[in-house]
UniProtKB/TrEMBL annotation:
Taxonomic source organism: marine sediment metagenome
The name this protein goes by in its record: Rhamnogalacturonan lyase domain-containing protein
Alphabetical list of InterPro entries matching this protein: CarboxyPept-like_regulatory (IPR008969), Cupredoxin (IPR008972), RG-lyase_II (IPR029413)
Annotated Rhamnogalacturonan lyase domain residues: 162-204
Coiled coil: none
Length: 216
């Protein structure tokens, strides 16, 4: 009986010790194992003076030393043609992104870009057709249709993934921003940019409010 009691005591002690070791291995600092956020968030509004709405403003971050090459998403972005309008009118993308140009109208459409950043003509095609193009240079690319001269869209190619486009009420939100000091810039087809220095700390949610005025 004594031997059995001693053996039970030894087994129990080993169980407790092994359990403690396992716990210490999982949580060496006594934490729950959840990683704290290493990045920050910028949220805010952009007001476009004397405009019907404050949408289609691209807000983006620049910083010296920020790496120049970010892998683009494998998923393509899309620019559609529907009811003789480009949807969306403004499309911000990361450099290296491929855009699918769709035709959702029961008429012939064309896609061409006459600018300096990217210059191409994808031709003309009908309902349901899709053609693609990969944008490898940063800047503004104006997209036109030579069948319908009133149609226009803007593709804004950016060098970092820290950007957002405003909704019609001017609201925007950028997430997963590494801590540091940046220059917040804006793009609008008619308005002047309003650069602003922004410092983001780990786990911080920074609120920014901007007002854009017409280019002179």
């Amino acid at each position: 009986m004594k031997i059995q009691k001693i053996m039970k005591a030894i087994i129990f002690a080993l169980f407790i010790m092994s359990g403690s070791f396992f716990t210490l291995t999982l949580f060496p600092n006594g934490s729950s194992g959840e990683n704290e956020s290493e990045t920050g968030i910028i949220t805010g509004t952009v007001k476009v003076s004397r405009a019907r709405h404050s949408g289609d403003v691209v807000a983006y971050l620049e910083r010296e030393g920020l790496k120049k090459e970010y892998p683009p998403l494998e998923k393509h972005s899309t620019l559609d043609q529907k009811n003789l309008v480009f949807i969306p009118r403004v499309l911000p993308i990361l450099k290296g992104t491929t855009v699918d140009f769709r035709n959702s109208d029961d008429v012939q459409h064309n896609i061409f870009a006459p600018g300096k950043v990217e210059k191409f003509n994808l031709g003309t095609w009908g309902l349901g057709g899709i053609k693609e193009y990969t944008f490898s240079k940063p800047g503004e690319v104006v997209i036109l249709c030579n069948v319908h001269s009133e149609m226009v869209a803007y593709i804004i190619i950016l060098e970092s993934p820290y950007f957002a486009k405003t909704a019609k009420d001017g609201n925007f939100r950028m997430e997963n921003i590494p801590p540091g000091t940046y220059t917040l810039k804006t793009w609008h087809e008619k308005m002047k940019s309003a650069p602003q220095q922004v410092t983001i700390a780990k786990g911080e949610i920074k609120e920014i409010h901007l007002e854009l005025k017409k280019r002179k």
